[in-house]
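Protein Record: Sequence and Backbone Structure Tokens
======================================================

Structure line: whole-number tokens from a learned vocabulary of local backbone shapes, matched to residues.

Purpose: to set a sequence beside its fold so the mapping can be learned.

___
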Amino acid sequence: MAHLGVADLAGIAQSAYGRELHDVTRLSGGSKKGVYRLTLDDGTTGIAYVWRASEDYWPEHDHDPLFGHASGRDLFLTAHTALTESGASVPGLVLTTPDVVVVEDLGSDFLEQSLDTEVLDRLWDDLAAVHRHTSPRYGRPSALQPLDAPAVPDVVLHRALGHLEACCARVPRIAAERDRLETQLRQRHAVLAPRTTYSLIHGELGPDHVLVADGRPVLIDIEGAMFFDVEWEHVFLELRFGSHHRPVAGLDQARMSFYRPAQHLSLVEGPLRLLDGGFPHREAMRAIAEHNVGRVLAC
């Protein structure tokens, strides 16, 4: 996949900063958008997020309105507003265009490099504030679902069963346990009580999605933010932060038990589907899928 260069982004740099663009570096990690560091002729830098088909490694997309292909300028901007209003730190906006957003460059220090510092404490405090931002309806901040929409656990069950089918077609070890896995999902779903209040969540928050700038945690890759069951967020935090995860009082343990296998199935199906395309970091993606195969079977 060809990446953008100085000639492609010179106009964006001129509009954002009024200066000539000296160099462009594509940063690693993105699968749905391009993330580029712009170096200007005076040595200062900015970050450009680029949503174009040429930057998207996914060979096909899930069109689920909640989880399907959480990417794009509009999702980024609505998530940016919602998270800012809830008290979280996100990179400051410099310029928006139909398919590019330029934000301040906060460096390349990620929380995964400093988990044993007070920045982690600040992150949990910030997340608590984000989760206190609630809505009587779930969904994207700009596209909340109607009050009579299917309950969140029903949405998750439908999605998890679809992932189970897809995983069975690709992973013989999961196919061998298909009936038992479906039974477990349905049993764990059946005991959940209704809920009428949903928390704002990041949706995919690992230590690689938190920059550390001036001693504070800054959330990035925010397009998946939505109002949802807070337990969905904590299952992912538990998975990504391991022993550094900080559970909070009041979590519904029955929901946690149901959402764990649902997320593990997603983290098998998604990486394997991504590998159908030209995603370059293939061994890392295979390792994610393999790890979660084990977690699915352990459930």
